[in-house]
């Protein structure tokens, strides 16, 4: 199928320009076929409306055309698509290998019906072809590995004539339920040479999709998100998970005339950190912003801080001995250069231990003296303190050009949390001073001990004489 759309056909209804009835009317009053079935078809679509477009190929496609009718009225019947009452498309067990040979894209049972504009996909998967620890090595650099599985995907209100004529996907609503997104990265591998992630926020990537898209509303339900990193320093894997994620995305589009439609994409989500702390978060993406501007704010409700050990121990070499979080509120504005905002962190009974890797014991061990200093001189055990005042801290995080969207958000929040519990540069310098004094005292003590030992040995030698 080769398609090229001309300006004079803009807005034309999906009907023949000239009625086929005029061709058969001298010999027939009516021509009809109830059902036409194409089974296991190889289909190729060439879009001539886009310069240098890559043809779309697909095999094992099933198409059913219902009630083809040519008579004196069918060409003008508004309930028909190109003389047909309905078009049903079905695809089973579709597999596509990505050009970089790192993933398979799999679709299981796709069904579309033109009369309703509904498309249903039983399951979608992005399947990596290498395991977690091998993926980056095969790629040749520290590349994020995605493993995605979604079930029960539904699109409603698809404009089929528009998609056929211009390959533009317009839909009123999309629903995704019962899925997972798992991301893994391995620290210690070399980074991609001259890698620059500026311009790769979610709404910026959406604008780079060549096919025009407009989905008015996307509804998510019970999607689990897991992000994990293997840290070469601790030789362990750290992870953070957001379970049972649900919410709504409004106005997901990359249309050229976006200014005339709506330049804002809004995302409202609620999820559970490690399945415990409830997180409500709102994103506002400016789709027309050249610098990728967006804002986000949210609230993380009460949970036991020890669940954070799954990420703080392997990645930060910090173990949380105890602590309870009442609430974490944040409000940020961000763009390509970084994120600025405030963090208000309310907690109590916090105690930590600093860790280090011990190769001989093959696990992390506690740094006793440093942990004592951290709890005594740096860590605020509760916030608000005795005065009852909870003062939000200000964060101004500059984003390195090679860091991702999620990394920037995490670093901004983590900086706010560190400042809230007392880990500031001033206090860290104070601890360094104490450590330096302790080392000097210890060296002096060892020196005096050594001199006493030398005097005793000399005295014993004199007595023997």
Description:
With 465 residues, the protein is an alpha+beta fold. It has an 18-stranded mixed sheet that branches. It has helices at residues 21-24, 132-139, 160-166, 202-208, 258-261, 309-316, 368-378, 405-420, 425-464; strands spanning 2-3, 31-47, 56-70, 86-91, 94-97, 103-113, 118-128, 145-156, 169-186, 213-231, 236-253, 264-273, 277-286, 294-304, 318-335, 338-358, 363-366, 393-398. The longest helix has 40 residues, at 425-464. The mean pLDDT is 83. Helix 7 packs across helix 9 (425-464). The termini are far apart. Strand 16 (338-358) and strand 17 (363-366) form a beta hairpin.
Low-confidence runs: none
Number of strands: 18
Order of helices and strands: EHEEEEEEHEHEHEEHEEEHEEEHEHH
Instruction: State which percent range the strand residues make up.
Output: over 45%
How would you classify the quaternary structure? single chain
Overall spatial form: elongated
Largest sheet: 18 strands, mixed
* Termini separation: 111 Å
Number of discrete helical segments: 9
- From the alpha carbons, calculate the radius of gyration and give it in angstroms: 31 Å
Helix content: 10-25%
The mean pLDDT is 83
Helix/sheet category: alpha+beta
């Amino acid at each position: 199928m080769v398609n090229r759309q001309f300006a004079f056909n803009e807005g034309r209804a999906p009907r023949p320009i000239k009625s086929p009835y005029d061709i058969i009317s001298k010999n027939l009053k009516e021509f009809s076929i109830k059902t036409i079935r194409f089974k296991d078809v190889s289909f190729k679509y060439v879009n001539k409306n886009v310069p240098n477009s890559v043809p779309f190929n697909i095999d094992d496609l099933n198409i059913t055309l219902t009630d083809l009718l040519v008579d004196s009225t069918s060409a003008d019947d508004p309930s028909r698509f190109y003389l047909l009452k309905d078009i049903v498309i079905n695809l089973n067990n579709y597999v596509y290998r990505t050009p970089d040979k790192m993933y398979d894209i799999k679709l299981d049972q796709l069904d579309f019906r033109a009369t309703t504009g509904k498309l249903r996909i039983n399951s979608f998967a992005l399947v990596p072809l290498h395991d977690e620890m091998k993926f980056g090595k095969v790629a040749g650099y520290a590349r994020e590995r995605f493993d995605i599985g979604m079930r029960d995907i539904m699109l409603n209100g698809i404009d089929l004539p528009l998609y056929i004529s211009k390959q533009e996907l317009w839909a009123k609503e999309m629903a995704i339920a019962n899925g997972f997104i798992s991301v893994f990265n391995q620290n210690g591998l070399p980074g991609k040479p001259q890698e620059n992630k500026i311009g790769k926020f979610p709404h910026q990537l959406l604008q780079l999709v060549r096919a025009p898209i407009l989905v008015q509303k996307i509804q998510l339900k019970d999607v689990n998100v897991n992000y994990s990193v293997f840290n070469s320093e601790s030789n362990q894997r750290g992870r953070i998970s957001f379970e049972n994620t649900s919410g709504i995305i409004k106005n997901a589009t990359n249309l050229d005339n976006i200014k005339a439609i709506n330049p804002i994409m809004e995302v409202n989500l609620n999820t559970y950190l490690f399945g415990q702390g409830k997180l409500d978060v709102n994103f506002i993406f400016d789709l027309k912003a050249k610098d990728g501007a967006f804002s986000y704010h949210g609230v993380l409700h009460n949970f036991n801080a020890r669940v954070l050990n799954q990420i703080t121990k392997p990645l930060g070499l910090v173990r949380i001995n105890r602590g309870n979080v009442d609430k974490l509120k944040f409000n940020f504005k961000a763009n390509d250069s970084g994120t600025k905002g405030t963090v208000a962190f309310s907690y109590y009974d916090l105690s930590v231990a600093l860790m280090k890797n011990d190769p001989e014991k093959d696990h992390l061990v506690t740094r006793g003296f440093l942990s004592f200093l951290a709890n005594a001189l740096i860590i605020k055990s509760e916030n608000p303190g005795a005065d009852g005042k909870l003062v939000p801290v200000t964060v101004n995080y500059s984003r390195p050009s090679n860091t991702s969207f999620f990394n920037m958000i995490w670093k901004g929040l983590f900086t706010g949390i560190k400042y809230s519990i007392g880990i500031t540069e001033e206090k860290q310098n104070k601890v360094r001073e104490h450590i330096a004094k302790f080392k000097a005292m210890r060296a002096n003590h060892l020196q005096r001990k050594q001199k006493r030992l030398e005097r005793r040995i000399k005295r014993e030698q004199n007595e023997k004489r």
